[in-house]
Fold this sequence. Notes:
CATH topology of the largest domain: Beta-Lactamase
Number of helices: 6
Mean pLDDT: 90
Structural class: alpha+beta
Number of strands: 6
Helix content: 25-40%
Amino acid sequence: MIPKEVFEQTILKFFGAVRPYLDDASVSEIMINGPREVYIEQKGKLYRTDAVFASQEALMSALRNLAQYVGRMLDEEHPILEARFPDGSRVEAVIPPASPDGPSVSIRRFSKDTLTIEKLLSFGSFTPDAAEVLNALVGCKQNIIVAGGTGSGKISMLNCLFSFIPDD
C-alpha cells in the first residue's frame, strides 16, 4: 500500500499546472475547462490564467490519480468524480461522454481563516438580533435551510451555526 504522504505529493505533482493557485490562499476556486483553459476566482472575480496542462491525457492522468486517492472510479461508465484534495478542497470533475468537449474540473477551496459569528457581525453580514434568533433556533433544535449560489457562503454559515451547538 502506498503511504498517504506519498499519494498526496503525487496528486500535487499531477496537478502541477495549477499548483501555484492551490498554494495561493487568495484563490477560492480553480476551474479547468480542458488542458488549455484554466480560470481562477480571486476575491470574487474571475481571471483566465496562463496555466496549461501538457495534454488532455495529462489532465486525465491527474484526475485518475485523484480518483484512486479517494477510492473512486473515473472512466466512461463513471464520468463524474466528486472528491477532495488532501487539504480538503472540493473537486468536481466531469469527463467524456458526460462532458463531450473533454474534462471539466472545478476545485473549490476554503479559507484557512474560519469565519465566526463575531466576524460576520463585524462585517455587517447580519445583525446581533439575527445572531440571537439563529442561536435560539439551533438551541431549540429547529430545522434551518441554508441556500444560496456558488461561493455565497453556505458552508461558512453552517460552520457558524455549528458554533451554537452546545458541547453536551
